[in-house]
Amino acid sequence: MEGLTDPEARVRTRYVDLAVNAESRDLLTARSTVLRSVRETLFAKGFIEVETPILQQVHGGAAARPFVTHINSYSMDLFLRIAPELYLKRLCVGGVERVFELGRAFRNEGVDFSHNPEFTLLEAYQAHADYLVWLDSCRELIQNAAQAANGAPIAMRPTSDGLQPVDISGVWPVKTVYDAVSEALGEHIHVDTNLATLRRLSDAAHIPYRAQWDAGAVVLELYEHLVESRTERPTFYIDFPTSVSPLTRPHRSKLGVAERWDLVAWGIELGTAYSELTDPVEQRRRLHEQSLLAPVEIPRRCSSMRTFCRPWSMRCRPPGASAWASTGWSC
C-alpha cells in the first residue's frame, strides 16, 4: 500500500492515516518532541508549570468568542477558556515569578489553515522582565525545539514538492511596525500620521477599514495585510500602536506605541509578547473603552474587566509575558 493520499480521508480517519503513512507517524513523534523541548527549556530557566481551569465562569485573556457549556449541578453557564492569562496573572500577584502553562485553548471563531477552534497554547510569565527579554527567550524556545525534533535548527516548510528544510538559526530580524508598514507602502508613516492620510493610503492599497477605527487600528490593518501576510522568514515586529494593545505597557521612551512584539513567519503570527501593563487604573480605563466597541457583550466584558483588574490593584512585580501557539493536532 502506497499510503492514504486523500486529504479529507486522512483527517477523518486519522488512525488509518497513521497506520499507512510513515510521514504522519513521524509528525506525531516530532510534535511530542517539540512539546518536551519547550518544557525542558523553560524548566532550565527556572519556570514552573501549572494547570489552570479550562471551565471558567468569566472568559478573558484574549478578544475571542468562547464556547459556552452548562454545569447541571450548579445550573450555571461556563466557558471553555480562550486563554489561561487571568489565572496565570493571579499567580504572578501571589509571588510566583516564573510560571507557564502548556495546554489546550478553545475559540469559537472562523476556521482556516492557520486557525483551529481547539489548539495548544503556551503562555508564560516572568517577573522583572520586559518584552525585549522575551525576544531572545522565544527564539531560544523555537530553535531548541527545532534542534530536538529535526537534529538541527531548521524548520520543515510544507511545499508542493513536500517538506523543505528552512534554516532558522542565528538572530532573527527585528523591525518596528511603523517602519515595516512604511516600507510596504513606499511612503513613510509614523505615530503622528493623521487618520485621513492613513485612510488614503489604505484606499490606495485596496485595504478596507471601518469608519469607527482610530489611526492605530488602521495601521494594524495595514500591517496585517501588507507585512504579516508577506513575511516568510522568522521576523519580530515590535512597538505596536498603543490603542490596539490594551494589555501592554506604553513604550518607555516612544509616545504612541506599546512594548509589544509579534513573531511572524510564513505569513502567520507564531507568537506575541509584551511588557505587562500593571497600573490597575489605566488598565480599567482601557478595558472599559474596549467594552464600548461591542455593546452586545458589555456585561460579560465588564465582569472580565473587574476580575482582571482586581489582582493588579495589589502590589505586583512587573512581568514580561509571552504567548506562543503551536500547531494543533488531534486523533
Q: Which CATH first-tier class of the largest domain would you pick? A: Alpha Beta
Order of helices and strands: HHHEEEEHEEHEEEHHHEEEHHE
Q: Approximately how much helix is present in the residues?
A: 25-40%
- Average pLDDT taken over every residue: 86
- Rg is 21 Å
Q: State the CATH topology of the largest domain.
A: BirA Bifunctional Protein, domain 2
Beta-strand residue percentage: 15-25%
Total count of strands: 13
Distance between the termini: 22 Å
**Number of separate helices:** 10
How many domain units? Answer: 2
Identify the CATH architecture of the largest domain: 2-Layer Sandwich
What oligomeric state best describes the polypeptide chains here? single chain
Task: Output the structural class.
Answer: alpha+beta
